[in-house]
Design goal:
heterodimer; A: 366 residues; alpha/beta; DNA polymerase, domain 1; Rossmann fold; Arc Repressor Mutant, subunit A; 12 strands; elongated; B: 518 residues; Ribosomal Protein S5, domain 2; 2 domains; four-stranded mixed β-sheet; 18 strands
């Protein structure tokens, strides 16, 4: 088992040889041991690869420096307790095998058991609005409540928020990277990264040390959707990479969900477009659960306890339930005094009912 | 032949008594001033010589030595010209003083022109105050300095236009204008003539400004461009309490030393409002220079220092503010002397929430374009300790078109001033024996005895601290502000609602300010 993974790693490190060629090779010669006994033409004929590629592969396999690199990576893996699995591993998720181009190798850091659980991808813009933040926090915490795990890409914005919210609610979450598994990108996610290694799982198809590269991100997206039952897009502009994930989900015939938004918001053009194209409009977690009735998921918190409000808190609650508001607006709508507004806002914040937004506004917590 | 006169030099903003000694001995013509004079004093030789000649006297052609005692103290300025001239005439016995005049109780303070005209000098007021304490009875000044000098009513101020008339007075003992002119000078209008009624909406902001003005708390306004931060800040002086006479003297002294009084006015009666541009240097803000001068923080003493676009200020300049804010005075040490300027001011800062200015607003088609690290970097230009020194932080929301057009005018300056006065009266009563005026000046010990919380408030405070992770340094400031809010509400006891309001004004303390996106 490990042997195949090691051979794959070696092959992946050869310059000029892509995943497609490796796949063809592996399909015919499981662990490449018999390659030495065959001629170049024989290999080319069996695999359908052209002779140049075959030459390149043979040269690469014999190359000592590449072999040294392989050993070095294996050492790193052991030191950091990162697992490396190939398609033959029992850990390799079945749903990932169904996709068009399943990753040949997967590096796993954290709790690999999570790959067996029901997952939903939650993705979105790197620069969310407050509405996007609200929607992510609300839906992710509900998903967690129903036992869904959350897959995302550890990018800034919605992705990070989805992971954070999942971890905060003690839920399952998987981050799929578009770079080497030990590369923290973006760097401000350092703490989140560590939390994911500890309480979640980090997945990448790239060996440790692989630098960040633009081209890897769209490829990563197919794994995000591939690991999931469906993909929820929270906010996306029209040219967003998020839409690639949605497209990947469609190609893999998985469900696509989208959170609608105002037509004036750049962040919602993409999601509204998806809905127009047939993605399912999501207002609450129920809209997602409907599609997965066969999973028979149950809410963990039986009856959500409704926090008791005093009559004056109720006044504030009734304003905030409609929209986020600043102090002046609350003053005029509720008719309360400054002191009272501040006091009840504070107590409601302490009860976890109200959140303060930057810009001096308050809103109800998801 | 020897004569001596009194004189004063300025150290910081205080007058310091000197003895001006004039000795004329026989020998080759020679004229020397000793006692660490600066070049302006050294050049007095030429001015005095011409002024005496042009006033119709023969300048003594002898060996002249002038000593400014104590000789080890550095002196500066042109205010000794007249005294040196008169001293020379006395020592050479060219004039005879009327016996009824006691020359040792007369102070001569003016610069001389070559034709003998008396010119005004800066720093008259501190000298007057010091002179009064040194037993001076009469002061002879230039006409332009009269109004500033008569602030000290106990002194007999005589103003003259030229040296000849001064001499005439000394010889005859009669002064035509000996009756005091209107003792009250004009009031310097340091305040803009605006009114809070011009600011539409913004009820929360007006409320927080009332609190700040009532307790002289440092205030930080954060808001998108065009939300009215500067407009609000510029109107703060319209609601601040007037200066007491002792405070007026303090402020006027500083302006006198800085040479900002000009001759047209006397006592500064309203609180100063200073708003330096953000390109200001450390010396410009804090004070200093090779000839030390008070900086903007001292010019804002007992008043308001408004720093617009706070993050645009040079970081080192801002950090220089920390010590003066805490101590209420600034010490500037130079090789020869240490100077001390008072700097008790209310600091009002205004800033955008991020580089583009729109972080936290959901304005259609015009949201914030900064990434979160960019927002953080912008805010990090202000150090934590500096932010800690603001008692009140408030975020001013974006005002949309409807609010501006239809907004109720809201409270006017007069109404707000009433609120402020309510709190001031409470504070005056409370601090009668403590030697302070405002809640913001309380020492930690006073805070402990004055800001007692009931058990309900104590619990609220504890919960909030744990929930938001406030720093310990904020605690005293929160208590002081809640005290001011209680004062505004005319309450002897700090109630939970007062504390809650104060807690809400510490937005920048809490790390949760990023909308959950850390």
């Amino acid at each position: 088992m490990m042997k195949q993974a090691k051979t794959l790693l070696h092959l992946k490190l050869i310059d000029g040889v892509g995943d497609v060629s490796i796949k063809r090779l592996i399909d015919n010669f499981q662990d490449c041991t018999e390659l030495n006994t065959l001629t170049v033409d024989e290999i080319a004929n069996t695999t359908g690869l052209n002779t140049n590629t075959v030459l390149l592969i043979l040269k690469g396999l014999a190359d000592k420096s590449t072999e040294a690199k392989v050993e070095k990576i294996l050492e790193t893996l052991i030191k950091k307790q990162i697992q490396m699995i190939a398609g033959d591993s029992s850990l390799y998720p079945a749903q990932l095998k169904e996709i068009a181009q399943p990753p040949l190798l997967l590096f796993l850091w954290g709790n690999a058991e999570l790959l067996k659980d029901e997952m939903l991808a939650v993705v979105g813009t790197r620069r969310p609005s407050h509405y996007g933040i609200y929607a992510t926090q609300k839906i992710v915490s509900e998903l967690i409540d129903y036992g869904f795990g959350v897959v995302s890409g550890l990018a800034k914005g919605i992705d990070s928020l989805a992971h954070q919210t999942a971890l905060k609610n003690r839920g399952k979450t998987i981050a799929v990277l578009g770079c080497g598994i030990d590369i923290i990108y973006p760097s401000e996610n350092r703490d989140l990264f560590r939390a994911l290694v500890r309480d979640g799982l980090i997945v990448s198809e790239y060996p440790p040390g692989t630098a960040v590269h633009q081209a890897y991100f769209p490829l990563r997206n197919r794994i995000i959707s591939g690991l999931s039952y469906g993909t929820l897009v929270v906010e996306a502009s029209l040219k967003s990479g998020t839409l690639i994930t949605a497209q990947a989900a469609l190609d893999q015939s998985r469900e696509v969900f989208a959170v609608p938004g105002p037509i004036s918001s750049i962040n919602s053009i993409g999601t509204n477009h998806l809905i127009k194209q047939g993605a399912k409009l999501v207002q609450s977690v129920d809209d997602i659960l409907e599609e997965f009735t066969y999973l028979n998921l149950k809410s963990r918190s039986k009856e959500k306890e409704r926090v008791r409000l005093t009559s004056k808190e109720e006044l504030i609650y009734n304003v905030l339930v409609v929209e986020a508001a600043d102090i002046d607006y609350l003053l005029n709508k509720t008719g309360l005094e400054f002191n009272e507004i501040y006091q009840y806002l504070l107590t409601m914040q302490l009860k976890g009912l109200v959140d303060k937004l930057p810009g001096g506004r308050y809103m109800l917590k998801a | 032949m020897y004569a001596q006169l009194k004189g004063f030099t300025i150290l910081g903003i205080e007058g310091y008594p000197l003895l001006i000694e004039i000795d004329i001995a026989s020998g080759l013509p020679y004229f020397q001033i000793v006692g660490l004079p600066d070049s302006a004093i050294r050049e007095a030789k030429d001015r005095v010589r011409s002024a005496i000649s042009n006033s119709g006297f023969k300048f003594p052609l002898n060996r002249i030595t002038i000593n400014l005692a104590p000789a080890n103290l550095k002196k500066e300025g042109t205010s000794f010209d007249l005294a040196i001239g008169i001293g020379l005439l006395l020592a050479s016995q060219l004039i005879k003083v009327q016996p009824s005049l006691d020359i040792s109780k007369i102070l001569f303070i003016a610069e001389l022109s070559l034709d003998g005209t008396l010119q005004p000098v800066t720093g008259i007021l501190p000298v007057m105050i010091a002179a009064l304490n040194c037993g001076i009875e009469k002061v002879i000044v230039a006409k332009e300095n009269y109004r500033e000098a008569v602030i000290i009513k106990e002194l007999d101020i005589l103003d003259f236009d030229n040296l000849r008339n001064v001499i005439k007075y000394l010889e005859s003992g009669e002064h035509a204008n000996i009756d005091n002119k209107a003792a009250e000078g004009e009031i310097i209008e340091l305040q803009p003539k605006d009114d809070f009624i011009d600011v539409k909406g913004q009820q929360q902001a007006k409320r927080v400004i009332e609190i700040a003005a009532a307790g002289m708390h440092n205030l930080l306004l954060v808001g998108p461009p065009g939300s009215g931060k500067s407009m609000l800040a510029k109107r703060i002086p319209t609601i601040t309490p007037d200066l007491s006479f002792a405070e007026q003297l303090e402020v006027t002294k500083i302006y006198s030393v800085a040479g900002l009084l000009k001759h047209k006015a006397s006592l500064i009666k309203s609180r100063p409002f200073r708003s330096p541009h953000h390109t200001i240097s450390t010396i410009g803000l804090i004070g200093g220079g090779s000839i030390p001068r008070p900086g903007e923080i001292s010019l804002a003493h007992r008043g308001i220092l408004f720093l617009d676009e706070l993050p645009e200020f040079n970081r080192l300049v801002l950090e220089g503010l920390r010590q003066p804010i805490e101590d209420g005075e600034v010490h500037i040490s130079r090789a020869r002397a240490a100077y001390q300027y008072p700097s008790k001011f209310m600091l009002v800062g205004a800033m955008n929430p991020c580089k583009c200015g729109f972080y936290g607003t959901d304005i259609p088609n015009r949201g914030c374009i900064c990434t979160l690290p960019e927002v953080m970097r912008y805010r990090n230009r202000l150090s934590g300790p500096l932010i800690d020194r603001f008692d009140l932080h408030i975020e001013i929301p974006w005002t949309d078109f409807e609010k501006i057009r239809d907004g109720k005018a809201g409270r006017s300056s007069a109404q707000m001033k009433e609120t402020v006065f309510r709190a001031i009266n409470m504070q005056l009563k409370r601090f009668e024996d403590s030697g302070i005026t405002f809640n913001s000046e309380m020492t930690p010990k006073l805070v402990k005895s004055v800001c007692k919380l009931d058990s309900e408030s104590e619990l609220l405070l504890k919960k909030t601290f744990n929930h938001y992770g406030f720093s310990g340094r904020s605690l005293d400031r929160i208590l002081k502000v809640s005290r001011t809010i209680a004062d505004i509400e005319n309450s002897e006891q700090i109630k939970p609602e007062h504390l809650a309001e104060a807690l809400n004004y510490r937005v920048l303390d809490s790390k949760k300010d990023t909308g959950g996106l850390e």
